[in-house]
Write a structure and sequence with these properties.
heterodimer; A: about 375 residues; alpha+beta; 5-stranded antiparallel beta sheet; 10 helices; elongated; B: about 260 residues; mainly alpha; 11 helices; about 80% helix; Mo/tungstate-bd_C_term_dom (chain A); ABC_SmlMolc_Importer (chain A); ATP binding (chain A); translocase (chain A); nucleotide-binding (chain A)
């Protein structure tokens, strides 16, 4: 068995996709509210959000199944709003796989080629076998979809989407119906395929880990709008609002008031009276008196070593400790707020619920967000 | 112990119900093998002479041909109207959908004698009485609902994402329906077509009124026979009809199982 030379399948280049002020309403309810996005050619972009946030509608609009009420959709700076889906030259993977039940794996994968090209029979067979090899399903050509497992069906679906070498590939929660182990495996494979092909991938998911691990850029969506668009690190480390902060990963969000802001930094007071000073240079500055939310990621917190200066710690009582094998998850009460952090079994020593604890925080990694979001 | 009694009672009632349902068929088939001219059950012996009688009688052969002709045209017309109607009613928001569906189904519950008389009167000025086509048109009114119902059931379980998958991968919407939707819902259409044919083949009253007595489909020929001379040929012809129906049901069952082979075949 010869190996697929990635160059064989490599597309000319990914397509750039641009949405300019796009809106769509269904029976008076906005599903997409004035969205503008610029998706770089060849990038892997995730549309991430809770259900009903508009991510699937956005994907279906790029596919051409949904016509925008307002705004423009451009591929490589050419408007395509009026081009029907079958002429957009896109590949698409669906959560339900959507394999044609009356066709074999071979015929399923060959379908886009038969619709779009006039390849000779041997060329067609070669292309189908290449695509199946790329998704590691060689030898399954004569099976019917119902004879395959969920993971295998999704691989066929991917081969079908890729075989026509589309410059744009859309994936609508492709791993949503699979169990965790298989999902982790396929995430890696999809990422590899993206690297090999160079097409633009737009990937809808409600799984934040999936979005962070796979993407070059993440579009966090909420209530039909874009809550934030940036690289995985940007949206994780510098969320623009508390929704993004809490949707991606674990976040301790503590209500606070800015009591002083100057060139040295910003000092906030928590509800329990503790005053914390954040160094200047953060993305956001607030004037004194503002109500804000203090963002502390669990990984930027730790049990304070004896002798740590008081200014770098928060005092509280241990409310709960949960054993996770390699670590403990700790819940610490500080006044009316709680903090979540991780600690190694070694650090726990003889700590027990109810004990006073000191939590060290990293001022340089803390963030301030506008309150009320 | 209770469980065993349950099983016994269940088995006994199944057998009883089956005997009750199959009784007329068993009697007819049994009587068709009678060696004497009496229409009696159980038969006094075994003979195939009444089947030979049918095979050698041009009247009976002709009746079978008429039934086939009427049935074939009925099926064709039922498909021609039933398939688009089935699609429209289950795919689109049609105004007055409930009314249209009710009207379609009313053909199934309207008394045949009413349909027979009204069809006859309607056909007089049109000159459609005494024509094969006329009877087929009348029968297709009873055939269309079967196609609409069966296709509708298939379409309800059809995943519309399949059509989207076809379209996004380059198929014109019409081609997507032809290459994906039709093959997937075909079993429903086939079952509907078989039912349309069968209701035509066994229909008596409309056939009597429209075709008169010059050309007789099987059902009418049987009726004539019962009135004129009762002998086991009737039982033999009936048995052949039962056999045909059995074959059709077998075909329908196969169609329902779909075109694809069984898992792990």
């Amino acid at each position: 068995m010869h190996n697929v030379d990635p160059a064989d399948l490599k597309t000319a280049a990914g397509a750039g996709v641009r949405l300019v002020g796009v809106s769509k309403a269904f029976r008076g309810t906005l599903a997409i509210d004035d969205i503008s996005l610029n998706i770089e050619p060849g990038s892997f972009v995730s549309l991430l959000g809770p259900s009903g946030s508009g991510k699937t509608t956005t994907l279906n609009m790029i596919a051409g199944f949904v016509t925008p009420d307002a705004g423009q959709l451009l591929f490589d700076d050419k408007p395509i709003t009026d081009i029907p889906p079958h002429k957009r030259n896109i590949g698409m993977v669906f959560q339900s796989y959507a394999l044609f039940p009356h066709m074999t794996v071979f015929d399923n994968v060959a379908y886009p080629l038969r619709m779009r090209t006039k390849l000779r029979k041997d060329e067609l067979g070669e292309r189908v076998r290449e695509a199946l090899q790329l998704v590691r399903l060689s030898g399954f050509e004569d099976r019917y979809p119902r004879q395959l497992s969920g993971g295998q069906q999704q691989r066929v679906s991917m081969a079908r989407a890729l075989v026509g070498r589309p410059r744009l590939l859309l994936m609508d929660e492709p791993l949503g119906a699979l169990d965790k182990k298989l999902r982790d495996e396929l995430q890696v494979e999809i990422k590899e395929i993206h690297r090999k092909l160079g097409s633009t991938f737009i990937y809808v998911t409600h799984d934040q880990t999936e979005a962070l691990t796979m993407s070059d850029a993440v579009v966090v969506m909420r209530n039909a709008q874009v809550a934030q668009f940036g690289s995985p690190r940007e949206v994780y480390e510098e969320p623009e609002n508390t929704f993004v902060a809490s949707f991606l990963g674990n976040a301790n969000l503590l209500p606070a008031k800015v009591v002083a802001a100057d060139g040295q930094g910003q000092t906030v007071r928590l509800s329990n009276g503790a005053a914390l000073t954040l160094p200047s240079g953060g993305r956001r500055t607030f004037i004194a008196g503002s109500d804000v939310m203090l963002l502390l990621r669990p990984e930027d917190l730790a049990l304070a070593a004896p002798g740590t200066a008081d200014s770098a710690t928060l005092n509280g009582t241990l409310h709960e400790m949960l054993f996770f094998g390699d670590s403990y998850k700790l819940i610490v009460d500080i006044g009316s707020d709680t903090l979540m952090l991780w600690a190694s079994p070694r650090e726990i020593a003889d700590l027990s619920v109810g004990a006073p604890v000191r939590v060290a925080w990293d001022a340089g990694r803390a963030g301030l967000l506008p309150a009320g979001e | 112990m209770n469980a065993r009694i349950d099983v016994w009672v269940l088995g006994a009632s199944v057998v009883a119900v089956l005997l009750y349902l199959l009784f007329p068929i068993v009697v007819v088939i049994g009587a068709s093998f009678n060696p004497t001219t009496a229409l009696q059950f159980p038969p006094s012996g075994f003979s195939l002479k009444w089947y030979q009688e049918i095979a050698g009688n041009p009247d009976w052969i002709n009746a079978f041909i008429v039934t086939l002709e009427v049935g074939a045209i009925t099926t064709l017309l039922s498909l021609l109207f039933g398939v688009p109607a089935g699609f429209a009613l289950s795919r689109y928001r049609v105004k007055g959908k409930t009314l249209v569906t009710a009207l379609l189904l009313s053909a199934l519950v309207a008394p045949h004698i009413v349909r027979a008389v009204s069809t006859y009167l309607f056909y007089v000025p049109l000159g459609l009485n005494n024509t094969i086509l006329g009877l087929a048109i009348a029968h297709s009114i009873g055939g269309i609902p079967f196609v609409v119902i069966n296709l509708g059931a298939s379409l309800r379980s059809f995943d519309p994402t399949l059509e989207r998958a076809a379209v996004i991968h380059g198929a014109h919407p019409v081609r997507a329906v032809l290459t994906i939707t039709f093959p997937v819902v075909a079993p429903g259409i086939i079952v509907g077509a078989l039912f349309a044919f069968m209701q035509s083949a066994q229909e008596l009253l409309i056939s009597i009124f429209v075709l008169g007595t010059l050309q007789m489909p099987i059902a009418v020929k049987l009726w004539e026979g019962v009135r004129v001379a009762v002998d086991p040929t009737l039982a033999a012809a009936s048995s052949l009809l039962v056999l045909a129906a059995l074959g059709f049901f077998l075909l329908a069952a196969l169609a329902r199982r779909g075109a694809a082979p069984a898992p792990n075949a």
